[in-house]
Amino acid sequence: MPIIMGQLGIVLMGVADTLMVGRLGKDVLAAANQANSIFFMVSSVTFGVMFAISSRVSIQYGEGMRQETFATYRAGQVAAMFLFLCQFVLLEIIIRNFEWLGQAESINRLTPDFLRIINYSALPMLLSTASRQYTDGLGHTKVAMSITFGGLALNVLLNYGLIYGNMGLPAMGMQGAAWATLIARVGMALSGIWYIRYSGFLAAYRPGIVPSWSEIKVQMSALWKLGLPVGLQTFAEWACFSISGLMVGWLGTAQVAAHAVALNVASVAYMVVSGLAVAGSILVGNAFGEKNREAIRKVAHATFFIVVLFQMFTAGIFIFFSERIAGWYGVEAEVMPVILPLFLLAALFQLADGIQAGAMNLLRGITDVKWSSLISVISYWVISLPASYVLGIMLDGKVFGIWTGFTLGLFMAAAFGVWRFYHRLNRLSWE
How many other C-beta atoms can be found within 10 angstroms of the C-beta atom of residue 30? Predict the structure, then answer.
């Protein structure tokens, strides 16, 4: 539950931004959505490497190597700094040449300045992720939850002040939302670093002396080996959604605004099952370190069962309460007819999305990351993106065709992911 709440806190920052920016009109909503979509597409590889920290730490914990986990955390911080430099340069190139993406004129005008501000937030975001992955991997999951909700509260408060000019702050419009995100992420990063450094609760995991550079390099090597395939997997999935969003951008701001709202709501449900999947990955990692096949199997069964049960519940909410949910975002009347059918597709695709998230995280828990990467590349780049382009652009299905395309990819990833996990589980060997 703390992991789920922490994951929800992260996505609720995006929900808060969308809700509060959406009041400024569909052009601003569309521009902010495209900026965040591009940012997270580029961040997907760096996030993937950071996600490897919890898998590595949980396995070390299962093996009884508790103090070695701190060197893994330090290696994650070093990796975060290196990855930030790469990400920052790539995003700056995109910002300077944004017209290459072929978006509507209003998006070309509004998005680059917003994206440039949140580009600076990548470093604190990655450092915060490293801290969260470390404490989660040790099973101390309430830490990251508390820090995330503190960051969420700060983000909402700053949005209220900086977007609309409240509390004596300047009214900066959508740029205010970007500054609020940057400040909140800096606060979260500093809080995570401070807690790990000074908490008595984690004293048993901190070595008496700072890990040497040679120790950190050993853990860095292990992180790259596990994290780069995970980064490829997350990039394949997140980039699929981001590029699909760019396709929607070719159709006009009303279609983008509808896409932004529907995907924003679906992401809330996804983060719950993502939290369940991360918890499953940590427990599987512990059992893998203990060389306990039966415990791995039980965790997997429980993970898939709860994921499917929850996604069936949220599908009902999407179907029966779609109009009310869409009304919360204050979108213009012309956007509403586009949003409502998307909720029906969201009810369908989020079931497959939850199952594939469970499968991919469980595969990471047993360090079978190369296959999960291959499955993601085939599902999203060979099946989903071409199908989205054909159905949405060539056959003029618009945003509905594009969503149908990535729904097909999600079902493919779910089917192959579940098959691969149980196939690998039955053949695990610790010899």
Answer: 31
pLDDT over 80 at 216, yes or no: yes
Write the CB contacts of 389 (distance below 8 Å, at least 6 apart in sequence): 247, 402, 405
pLDDT tens per residue across span 262-277:
887 888 788 888 889 9
Reported as a pLDDT band with limits 50, 70 and 90, residue 331 is: low
* 201 confidence band (pLDDT: 50, 70, 90): confident
CA 166: distance to chain centroid? Answer: 30
67 and 215 in contact (C-beta within 8 Å)?
A: no
The tens digit of pLDDT for each residue in 17-32 reads: 777 887 788 788 888 8
Q: Crossing angle for the helix pair 2-22 and 141-164, nearest 10 degrees?
A: 10
Q: Which ranges in 290-397 belong to alpha helices (H)?
A: 293-320, 322-328, 336-365, 369-376, 385-388
Of 260, 264, 241, the residue nearest 252 (C-alpha):
260
Three-state secondary structure call for residue 202 = coil
**Contact yes or no for 197/136 (Cβ under 8 A):** no
